[in-house]
Every structure is written in C-alpha cells, then in structure tokens.
Amino acid sequence: MSAPAVVYLARHATPDWSQKHIRYDIPPGPPLTEQGEEEARRLGVYLREVGVVRVYVSPLERTRRTAELVCEVLEITPIVEPGIAEWRRDEPEAGVRDRFRSIWERAAAESQAIGPIALVTHGGPVRALLATLELAHDELDHFRNQFDSRNPMPPAGVWSTVRESEDSPWQLTLSFAPTPFVRSLV
Fold it and tell me: Which residues lie below 8 Å from residue 66, measured CB to CB, with a gap of 6+?
C-alpha cells in the first residue's frame, strides 16, 4: 500500500491592498503588511505541525514573502513555481485550472514519496482547483461568502487535500486560518 497523497493549498498572507498603483496579478504585486508577516509565521507553525517537507510558491511578492517566513519556521527553502501564480486578468478559468491542476497533481504524487507538500498560492487558483475536485458548490459558496473578494479562504488560510489511496476520493478541508471562521454549513 502506498503512502497517502497530502497537499496543502495555502493562500498568501495579507498584502498591502492600499497600493492601487501595483497590479495584483503580475509580478511583483503588492507586498505583505505587518499583519501579513505575522499571519505567515503562524502559517509556518501550522505547516510544521502537519509535517510539510517541501514548499512550492507563486512568483509574486506576497506569496514569496509568505513562503520565506513559512520556510524559516520549517527550516527549508521554498521552490518558485510559476504554474501556481495568480489568476491574470485576461486568463480564462480553464487556463488557470489546467496549469494549477498539473502542478497540484505533480505535488500529490511527490508527496506520496517524500511527505506532505504545501503550495503557497492565491485564492482564485485554489477556488478553480476545488471546483475541479468537485467540492460541493454550496460548501464552496459557504466559504467564499466568509472571506475577502469571495476567496475560498482567508489570507494565510489553508485547504488540505488528502487521498488515502488511488481509488479513494479526495478529502477537502479548510484546515487552517490565522483567525476564526465558520467551518461548516450546519
């Protein structure tokens, strides 16, 4: 029996959205705020607790800084992966879904060999992947209605994707947020 596939989808911590002259969807994008720096450290502690051994990161400033702080806690070096970058203004959803899913699938296979992996990315691509993995529409909407810009998670939040075996379904759980949130529909 092979090891389970475990990939954590982490959103970047809180950026400085007040810098309107900087586009959010192309590098460098806005930097983190002081609050964001603290959220990233808490995210690092969570990812250490769940045993993450490798971190891939989007090339934008807010994700790179989040991953730097996370990886200081984990004592590893993040790996930049352009395929998990922010959803660009002119990019169709299918394009986002395809590029993100291929990296996620590679990370899932890799995790079976080395242990849990984290992708430090953005809310839009995570939403596209969760829909592809058939997270119930009402559950996805429940979370999107709780967080900024209808993201499926807060800044520095994490969805865990776990599959025990090749023939079992993916278990999708919003597993971490630096501040409290309502976990379920009930």
Answer: 10, 12, 13, 32, 36, 39, 40, 43, 57, 120, 156
Q: pTM of the prediction? A: 0.94
- The residue type found at 131 is A
Q: Is the peptide bond before 59 cis (omega within 30 degrees of 0)?
A: no
Distance between CA 144 and CA 148 in Å, rounded? 8
Give dist(CA 12, CA 14) in Å, integer: 7
Cβ atoms of 25 and 89 closer than 8 Å = yes
Q: What type of residue sits at position 117?
A: I
pLDDT in tens, 101-140: 999 999 999 999 999 999 999 999 999 999 999 898 898 9
- Residue 126's φ and ψ, nearest 5 degrees, are -65, -45
> How many of the other CB atoms lie within 10 Å of CB of 104?
25
Please state, as a whole number, how many other Cβ atoms lie within 10 Å of the Cβ of residue 166: 8
The CA distance from 41 to 24, in Å, is 22
What's the token pair of residue 126? Answer: 């995570």
